[in-house]
């Protein structure tokens, strides 16, 4: 059966070998053992049960918490030629009955359902007549009352498995990306998983750069403190997909409106919106029609979008489990990614208020104490002077070989610290000479000496600061101006057309009493997105996704496109050597991508 598993992996998924964790879990499943797999986001959990489901006789039932996750998984499976379906509230009665008919005839290998489906007597009576090979519980941490995503409906699963098997126990598999040792024990007990093979993957996501931005001690106002950093970051990462998490609906709306004002490609998601609005906005983000999602933590569970390059928390989360799970939505494809947490003492007070408010409706008298205890761990994290990654891994019961990772802000903090006082003086002089009348972009253009019509009409080419920063790039100047705003060296006026004013400390900088010391940001390598052939292939992927109404990353991941752009396969055999391209994917899309690659190579004479 092991050789059959490898054949399926290559034929359908386009990979030659399993990852270490996948291989161990699949071996245990093929030996008919129950399994608990705790595997970090992007480690390939779904492959662990999908491949055995194709080998075993009968139907595999996958219990999943979200309709969007079910659809995503089923779309991905159908695309590579695997018979799968789901039962949920989006189906018409005719569609529902057709799926049951196909299940009865043995035409479907994987069936995705929500835990609430287990309350449906008609479904229970029907499924009892079907040969079941396995029951898989996805997002298994939802069964634990110790976790923040507890779903009471998950508590019915153990009885459901017993109902299906009678005296013969049905093989049970449970998977989750985030579980402390306490939650791990709770999952096994609540799901009644007998003698399981337990595999705990390394929690380390070494492709994610962790960073904390401390805004405490400034104005403690989200509108002033977080937004300049966010817009500055987005300017540097234009064209990249990312999520900005906020603790309240109001903050989501504020940041969303702010970004719309800067013409960013953005949408939003929170519980105050209608289901239709949420579904529409989620699809826009998943389909790469917008770059940025601003959301509360209502968004994200089961989101398989693989090309998210950054996750920014504009407010401190309630606990480290939630933070690491949300941050882990970046870089699922294995490419470089960033997780940034913006911390403000005001947000700490808001979180405590929300916890106290929520605790009032709970029967558990220790609920608030448990929440506050978890929150204190989060506060410890933001105040760390040592390695962020080491702290996270230790929290989840994992040790690092070294006490520093070399790839988080604290491990890099001694690098790239520079004195930018001269640049600050030039910018302050520019604001003053222009009589505090310019916005950020216009000031940057003036300092660079760009003699466009706007400059000439305003006579800005005549003032002494025109062109004094021509050696700097516009992006860097605008970024530094935003930094000066956040440090109160400059002030940005309110209104539709904000202009820059001199701040309280500008004279101290000009007189040399204050030095402007700044750490240059660690540069995360996203250069492959600028590759011309990658852009061509990405454009083709987008065309196909629109034609077939599926998310682009389901067709091919960014990492697969990047490998195509690097290796430039010119025929079927070369294309099948690319990771993520099996025979089924090639049949569906291979020729179209080969044509685009060959045309590019001819035009470039490669």
UniProtKB/TrEMBL annotation:
Residues 527-606 form the HRDC domain. It catalyses: Couples ATP hydrolysis with the unwinding of duplex DNA by translocating in the 3'-5' direction. Residues 229-383 form the Helicase C-terminal domain. GO terms for molecular function: 3'-5' DNA helicase activity; ATP binding; DNA binding; four-way junction helicase activity; hydrolase activity; metal ion binding. Its cofactor is Mg(2+); Zn(2+). Residues 26-197 form the Helicase ATP-binding domain. Transmembrane segments: none annotated. One of its GO terms (cellular component) is cytoplasm. Belongs to the helicase family. RecQ subfamily. NCBIfam families: recQ, recQ_fam. This is DNA helicase RecQ. It comes from Fusobacterium animalis F0419. The lineage of its organism: Bacteria, Fusobacteriati, Fusobacteriota, Fusobacteriia, Fusobacteriales.
């Amino acid at each position: 059966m092991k050789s059959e598993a490898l054949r399926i992996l290559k034929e359908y998924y386009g990979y030659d070998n399993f990852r270490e964790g996948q291989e161990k879990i699949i071996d245990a499943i093929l030996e008919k053992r129950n399994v608990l797999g705790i595997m970090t986001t992007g480690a390939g959990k779904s492959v662990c049960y999908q491949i055995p489901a194709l080998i075993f006789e009968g139907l595999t039932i996958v219990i999943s918490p979200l309709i969007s996750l079910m659809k995503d998984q089923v779309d991905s499976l159908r695309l590579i030629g695997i018979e799968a379906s789901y039962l949920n509230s989006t189906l018409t009665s005719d569609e529902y009955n057709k799926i049951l008919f196909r299940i009865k005839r043995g035409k479907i290998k994987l069936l995705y359902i929500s835990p609430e489906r287990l309350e449906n007597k008609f479904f229970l009576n029907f499924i009892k007549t079907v040969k079941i090979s396995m029951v898989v519980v996805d997002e298994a941490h939802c069964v634990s009352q110790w976790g923040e995503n507890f779903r009471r409906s998950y508590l019915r699963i153990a009885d459901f498995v017993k109902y299906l098997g009678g005296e013969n126990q049905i093989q049970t598999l449970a998977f989750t990306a985030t579980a402390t040792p306490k939650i791990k024990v709770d999952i096994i007990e609540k799901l009644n998983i007998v003698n399981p093979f337990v595999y705990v993957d390394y929690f380390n996501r070494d492709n994610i750069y962790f960073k904390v931005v401390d805004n405490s001690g400034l104005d403690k106002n989200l509108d002033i403190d977080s937004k300049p950093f966010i817009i500055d970051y987005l300017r540097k990462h234009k064209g990249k997909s990312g999520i900005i998490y906020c603790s309240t609906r109001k903050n989501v709306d504020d940041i969303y409106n702010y970004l719309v004002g800067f013409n960013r490609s953005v949408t939003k998601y929170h519980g105050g919106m209608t289901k239709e609005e949420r579904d529409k906005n989620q699809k826009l983000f998943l389909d790469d029609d917008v770059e940025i999602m601003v959301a509360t933590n209502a968004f994200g569970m089961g989101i398989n979008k693989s090309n998210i390059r950054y996750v920014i928390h504009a407010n401190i989360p309630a606990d480290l489990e939630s933070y690491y799970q949300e941050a882990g939505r970046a870089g699922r494809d294995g490419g470089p990614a960033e997780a940034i947490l913006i911390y403000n003492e005001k947000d700490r007070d808001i979180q405590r208020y929300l916890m106290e408010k929520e605790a009032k409706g709970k029967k558990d008298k220790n609920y608030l104490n448990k929440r506050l205890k978890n929150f204190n761990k989060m506060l410890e994290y933001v105040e760390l002077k040592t390695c962020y990654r080491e702290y996270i891994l230790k929290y989840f019961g994992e040790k690092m070989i070294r006490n520093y990772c070399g790839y988080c802000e604290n491990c890099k903090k001694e690098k790239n610290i520079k004195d930018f006082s001269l640049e600050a003086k030039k910018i302050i002089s520019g604001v003053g000479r222009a009589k505090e009348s310019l916005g950020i972009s216009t000031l940057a253009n003036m300092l660079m000496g760009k003699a466009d019509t706007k400059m000439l009409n305003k006579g800005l080419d005549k003032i002494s600061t025109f062109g004094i920063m021509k050696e700097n790039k516009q992006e860097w100047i605008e970024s530094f101006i935003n930094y000066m705003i956040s440090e109160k060296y400059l002030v940005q006026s309110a209104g539709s057309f904000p202009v820059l004013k001199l701040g309280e400390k500008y004279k101290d900088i000009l007189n040399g009493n204050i030095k402007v010391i700044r750490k240059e940001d660690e540069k995360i390598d996203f250069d492959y997105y600028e590759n011309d052939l990658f852009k061509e292939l990405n454009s083709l992927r987008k065309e196909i996704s629109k034609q077939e109404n599926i998310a682009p990353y389901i067709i091919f991941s960014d990492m697969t496109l990047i490998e195509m752009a690097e290796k430039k396969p010119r025929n079927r055999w070369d294309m099948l050597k690319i990771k993520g391209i099996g025979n089924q994917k090639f049949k569906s899309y291979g020729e179209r991508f080969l044509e685009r690659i060959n045309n590019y190579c001819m035009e470039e004479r490669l």
